Amino acid sequence: MVLAIDVGNTNIVIALYENDEMRGSWRMSTDKNRSADELGMFFIQFLTGSGIKASDIDDVIISSVVPPIMHSLGNAIKKYFHVEPMIVGNGVDAGIKICYDNPSEVGADRIVNAVGAIKKYGAPLIIVDFGTATTFCAINGRGEYLGGVITAGISISMDALFQRAAKLPKIELLKPDTVIGKNTVSSMQSGAYFGQIGQTDYIVQKIKAEMGEANITVVATGGLSSMISSGSDCIDIVDKTLTLDGLMEIYRKNKRSQ
User: Fold this and answer.
1) Residue 76 CB: number of other CB atoms within 10 A?
2) Catalytic site residues?
């Protein structure tokens, strides 16, 4: 059994794989101030609820975009599971060429998404991840990571409106029925939803033009991928487990090479 842990800016997602099949997954808020014991006990509680003991875990692989939490997280894994975690970026071979000016600048989540998408859907690809930030990643037909785009995520944009505009309330993001809002809340929801769709479709169109390749598959992932994809003209596939599946593909590649 292998634990795949994806540490994002907003949430930590933990998935349990048994014989390469996902057996369960859990989500907790990201708090860089949590101690190793707090993190460890959260993991143990998740597993215990599914009838899994800590001693059943053979390996752990981690992808993180939150460096301050890694000391506590690494210690939690060692203390409670008695394994040395495999951490994407720490000498772990992702098996993909990064065509960035400085490859080390590419977030682990973007690399993992690329590996997972190439394995599942082939290349060329554009991957759109609707997370705390919305990211666009371009992979050419040779399976090389070309680069991409990073924009503020929907939640960040909505929070900024609430914090910087005195009369605008904090609202729940819902899919509006019409573009034209009839009140402040519906107008903000329209701006967030249709604005994200417009941005997504336009950026994907421009990336496709620059790539100049045929049959580019557009894959969406992240918490809001289903909502945004339902109104988008450019997204071909929604894959909520892409990052976790990519982690497992990297795990398998590195275990085979040992």
Assistant:
1) 25
2) 109
